[in-house]
Amino acid sequence: METMTKKNKMYLAGEWVHREKTLPVNDPQDNRLIATVPAASAADMIYAIEQAKEGFRICSEMPVHERIAVLHRAADWINEKREAYAITIASEGSKTIKEARKEVRRCVETLRISAEEARRLNGETISFDQMPGSENRLGYYYRFPIGIIGAITPFNDPLNLVAHKVGPAIAAGNAIIVKPATVTPLSALMLAEAFDHAGLPAKILSVITGNAGEIGDVLVTHPDVRMISFTGGLATGKAIMQKAGLKKMSMELGSNSPVIVLNDANFDDAVESNVSGAFWAAGQNCLGVQRIYVQDGVYDAFVSKFVERTKKYKTGAKQSEQTDMGPMISEKEAKRVEQWVREAVERGARLLCGGNRNGAFYEPTVMTDVPEDCRIVKEEVFGPVVSIFKVTGLEEAIEKSNRVDYGLQAGIFSRDIDKVFRAVRKLDVGGVMVNDSSDYRIDAMPFGGVKGSGIGREGVKFALQEMTEPKVVCFRLTP
């Protein structure tokens, strides 16, 4: 596919370039080679940063209407070629073709929202005369772009999560350098291709492919990079913060999402929503349902129905329209999940379905009676495994939901508005989805968490705030 890799080049400050040293891109389904991409050097990253200084000047001086037009043209390009983008996502990553198509639609929406929010990046007037002695002063503040942004993106949403960083950065007037996940770089390169065709001036955007150890530290530590926007694991996020120095940080570091199902919930809806929430993208989803706390009155029936529905979930070839779930991103990751499940079972957990691995494929897995100090309860499994627990009521469910060092999103199923609002107040998370699983998001909402789930917020409007700073202007009126 000609649009997949721009003939195996990377996008360096507006130019498509080869490198003699390359990295393979393999389909995790069968490990076949589908492409190679340049293995960039530290010198490449330094060059991208140097060019981005001029890119920042260019983008910050672009009229807002021109930034809006570029974003809309990029969105239109992706929409016109949406099936090619979906095939690429489904080839290099874990998503099925149906899941990939949804990601492409969301990417188009993310870029269009970025265009709309560019026109709404406003300040406001300030009443300086609220302070005695300042009666002869008036002024305002406005927001200005911060400069060069370094974006480090994960494999599980290789197109839309890149768009969530690139779209707001350009809308705000910044330059941005993207280091995509090593295993899924093609979708990010195709996003760069869309901006190239949209007429984005050179030097504003770079997508640099390569090993994190070779180029990641350069991006993170360089003093001219004023912000790091990172989506990935908690351990990597902590390491980045220790290295980065004095710069802004926006980090989404995953989760271990709980869902509460009370006796008065819409039972069938709760089952269906949580099966989808647990196994979307083979469970490799920061919002994925990992722990379900079910009130004792409906626990047995819920578990029975949940297992029955899970067994109907079709695992297989990603490009098939009939497949619900594809492989994990690698056999190594599938083996890790297999080990975590085995540990839990050896300690007394009941395996109700799943638990089998075939290469990178790991079956949708449901467990009960899992000891709460098992890794699969305390940490982010990032795989197709869900644990179900019986609770006596809402307070116990909230207390157990909050026990882990994550707090991205949670879900609650109940018809009792008082109980819902109590959960909203007490759940220690960045978002509560009512009568929905934790795995719900639109691209316009603020998105982020507390505790080990990160700092800052994404979602286009809120990313724009992160990627700008307020500047105060005050006039003293002379007599």
UniProtKB/TrEMBL annotation:
GO terms for molecular function: lactaldehyde dehydrogenase (NAD+) activity. Residues 16-473 form the Aldehyde dehydrogenase domain. Gene3D superfamilies: Aldehyde Dehydrogenase, Chain A, domain 1 (3.40.605.10), Aldehyde Dehydrogenase, Chain A, domain 2 (3.40.309.10). SUPFAM superfamilies: ALDH-like. The keyword Oxidoreductase applies. PANTHER family: ALDEHYDE DEHYDROGENASE. Belongs to the aldehyde dehydrogenase family. This is 3-sulfolactaldehyde dehydrogenase.
